[in-house]
Amino acid sequence: MSAHMDRLIRLDDGQRILSKAECETIARRVKGFAEGGGDTYVQISSWWAGELRWGRNRVSLAGDRRNVAVYLNRTIRRALGVAFTNQLDDVSLQSAVRAAERSARFLPTGPQDLEKPRPTFAYATPAIWSDATYDQTAPESGQSARALIDPAEAEAMLSAGYLEVRAETTAHYPKDGPAMYAATTNAQCSMTVRDEKGTGSGWAGLSSYDLRAVDTQTLAKRALEKAVASRNPVSLEPGRYTVILEPQAVHDLVQWIVNPIVLPTLSRDGAENGSGPFVAGSDNALGLYRSKLGLKVVDERITISHDPMDPLLGVVPFDGEDEPYRPVKWIDHGVLTALSDPREYALRHLNDNLGYPNSGAYRMSGGETSIEEMIRTTKRGLLVTRFSNFGLLDGSSLLMTGLTRDGLWLIENGKITKAVKNFRFTESPLFVLNSLEQLGEPVPVFSPGVPAIVPPLKARDFSFTSTIDAV
Amino acid sequence: MSISRRDFMKTGAAAAAIAAVPRPLMVRLGPTPEPMPPIDDPRLKALVGRALEAARGAGAAYADVRLTHRQNRSVDSTARVVDLESMVVGVRALVDGYWGFASGGVWSPDEMARLGRGAVALAKTNALGKSRTVDLAPVPAIRDGHWVMPVKIDPFEVPPVEIADFLGGLEIYVSRVAGAWVVGLATSDFEVQQSVFGSTEGSYYSQRCYRTQGGIGLKLERDGMVGGGEMDCLTPAGLGWEFFTADRVPFVRDRSLRETIRERLDEIEADMKLPVKPLDVGRYDTVFDARSVVNLLDGTLGPATELDRALGYEANAGGTSYLNAPFEMLGSYQVGAPLLTVTGNRSDAGGCATVQWDDEGVVPDEFPLVKEGVLVDFQTTRESAGWLKEAYAKAGKPFRSHGCANAQAGLFAPLQRNPNLTLAPDRGEVDFDALVAGVAKGIAVNGIAPYMDFQCLNGMGMGAAYEIKRGKRVARIANAGVLFRAPELWKGLLALGGTASARRYGTQASKGEPEQTTYYSVTAPPALFKQLTYIDPLRKA
Questions:
Q1: Burial level of A218, CB count in 10 A (0-12/13-18/19+)?
Q2: CB within 10 Å: which end of chain B, N or C, has fewer?
Q3: What is the pLDDT of residues A142-193, one digit of tens each?
Q4: With an 8 Å Cβ cutoff, are B33 and A142 in contact?
């Protein structure tokens, strides 16, 4: 091994993430180590995070973490070998290549390649980098945290929370076709304020690629107000209630429809193989299941869409399989208009040369009604801050159980009258989106790395099945 | 020309060659990089020393360093092998009661110094604010300790083809001999994590820990009916390849894996012959199998007895605990019936949380959390034991950490995490069937997986439910959900199975911000509970 080959590319103070040029160098070296023919595919990522955590009104940990990852495929005689390392020196990269080759050699030859050349595609160039996020220093975060804790401590309440700034790079080097590189930042802040006895709890949080969009002082105020107002809750009977869901509560439900990491509800592959709520029925002629594409699935006021170029909804413009994110309307005025599929499925079944990846980021349409107006027009109902502890009970209807958390209030005759003990619910987000009364203005919610813009809403007959006395 | 796997197996040298993983990684212990030395190489101590020196020099009152080197390997029955390998390092420093932490992926003297200084700078940043005190529980210094988890067969020494052949053999057994089939593929996952720890109090150790798990889903068709289930004797364990090949694994299975599969298939078949009834909503005496009791214990008393969680440090993440006044509750709060005794340990052979030293250099002890129904202690680290200093003094207990500090890897700062948990079994020889035999009218539930709330207090769970009539399981019940509150559940504990009926399952949990995942094992016998509430969980209000 020649001396110059052992050069370490390191992440240190001057450089916390890998540049495009460095990723290219690494990819070139990896490809150079390949032996025995076949194709080499490389993904290189790096990340840095500045983290600050607090509990009981004191910072409990300040952290600075970073790492890299090289993931590589060697395809030899259509058999795929995979390996992974986090060391960037030549010997480590070379041995990772050898490991992938070794494992490829053991596998039987893969199926005939379906691959057609990928069409050339101009990847979107979304707004996903913020110098304000990347340049936030630890002392600045510390100062910020103290300012968030102080108001809670002044009221003799207990604050616990988390503030994180983060940067990531992702680079893909396909065997042919252009390389892809993206650098992105993420900022998130969330906190929970409780009273000393634990009879009340309030939460607020927000995330964005741009730290400047996360107004931490407003969050601190909201979490404190909710904590104070939620103390000493009364117990209500389980049953069906009209609910006013704050945007975060709506997101907690709707992400089960939209975010494939939570549940692949929008998967075409899944629906056409008979799983999930978007199966319309089996089609004997095709030997497949028909999906609900083209059918109305929720209230016609609902449109759920994503455009990677939306300035508030930027994501790394390609997925793990190099597929470009394109503008999409999953649900258009209540009608299911798109389902997501990987490229292999598109090639095999749809005669399409591009997959339809789903990043999970989304914008949900709203209406004109403010939360205050929703409350004013409610005779009896509940105001929900957020939901937590979900469990899927029935995939075919998206029936779930879960809990209300961090602030639940009774509304009587247009006014908030009492804090209410938390409920366990048994409900489907699709049912909620079919029982709408009013919609408000869509706003960004807490959804780190997968941005979402969601309105508050009022819906009828939300099913609460038992009271829980956890706060 | 491709070589068949069999041909490959015949040649010993080739088999040995493929046993080798992507090695060696390179480290910089000196001016030039070199292959990764064995984890007990004394030069790693110099690397650790460099970080500690830097931290102390920058003003740390206390600092510790963790270097971890991890290999993961997955092998399935088609011989698909995925190897992951990484090494990371983290330095934690304490200044005026505030913690700073810095971590990364490079093991070099310069990087150690950077991380040491960086951790202190982060701690100092926050020490500017209001005062905070940390009273670390004392711990004797470890002088150059080295420990290797005593597994019988290092899975990384076994050629992957041999593993694949074993798994393929199981699939063939299931389909050709037992007349059923394996859903998807039989899979296996192995991990070895080597770590080095050093602290400014003079402790230094290295240890190597293993974790092994597998997945085999079974399906069976009889008389037009389809039944099935997952083999639950392959949840994560602190064992090597013997987890698959041994004739028996204590607390996991009493027979070979093949015979255990056969047994499971017989159970599934017997189940399919039972009639299916709808649930008659109401309250029933209930026999839970060991897996259910493990899951209930894990859900209600696992996170709930984490002291940091009970005090609100996790409020913004997983939540808090119903044991929310720890200082008043210690020694007096009735968690359950006098039959209930729960201990924590990190020493169970085969336990996922088993170590010689925790991530703060503490030798974990075996400690009771609940003794005869009363809450007597919490899970602790050196810092959180400090919060109990007075309580321990009052109770005449030593001021020490129970050794529950655990970081997912060196990249993360240690948190207080679950040790292995054990529910003490009955002294007798009662098993699941004997418990069922004692019930005139009731319900038996296998494999309940409860959905808990954010204080581990209220739960709702579903499993495979059976109607019990005059001591026998006579029907399956569709959609039976148990609704419970933790204290009432455990106060209604009427009888426990004996040691021979206790089972151990490995599980993982996430905690903290940033979130970390760690593993631990829970061991419990089957048990009989008084009058639990059953609902149809799919029914809306």
A1: exposed
A2: N
A3: 999 999 999 999 999 999 999 999 999 999 998 877 899 999 999 999 999 9
A4: no
Contact B453 A422 (CB under 8 A): yes
Tokens of B430: 């009662």
Query: Amino acid identity, residue B252?
Result: V
For residue B222, how far is the Cα from the chain centroid? 36
Contacts of A429 (CB under 8 A, 6+ apart): A253, A254, A256, A257, A398, A400
Question: Is B22–A95 a contact, with Cβ atoms under 8 angstroms apart?
Answer: yes
The pLDDT of B54-82, averaged and rounded, is 95
Question: What residue type is assigned to position B243 of the chain?
Answer: F
Phi and psi dihedrals of B158, rounded to 5? -95, 125
Q: What pLDDT digit, counting tens, does each position of B196-205 carry?
A: 999 999 999 9
Residues of chain A with C-beta less than 8 angstroms from the C-beta of B34: none
pLDDT reading at B12 higher than 80: no
Tell which of B26, B91, B167 to mutate to test the A interface (max A CBs under 10 Å).
B26
Q: How confident is the model at residue B390 (pLDDT cuts 50, 70, 90)?
A: very high
CA B299 – CA A243 distance, rounded (Å):
29
Residue type present at position B36: M
Query: In whole angstroms, what is the distance from residue A374 CA to residue A439 CA?
Result: 9
Q: Is B224 left (phi over 0), alpha (psi -120 to 50) or beta?
A: left
pLDDT reading at B15 higher than 50: no
pLDDT value for A347: 87
Please classify residue A232 by burial: count the beta carbons closer than 10 Å to its beta carbon, then call 0-12 exposed, 13-18 middle and 19+ buried: exposed
Beta strand B204-222 with B145-148: parallel, antiparallel or unpaired? parallel
Q: What ipTM, to 2 d.p.?
A: 0.95
User: What residue type is A300 in one-letter code?
Assistant: E
pTM: 0.95
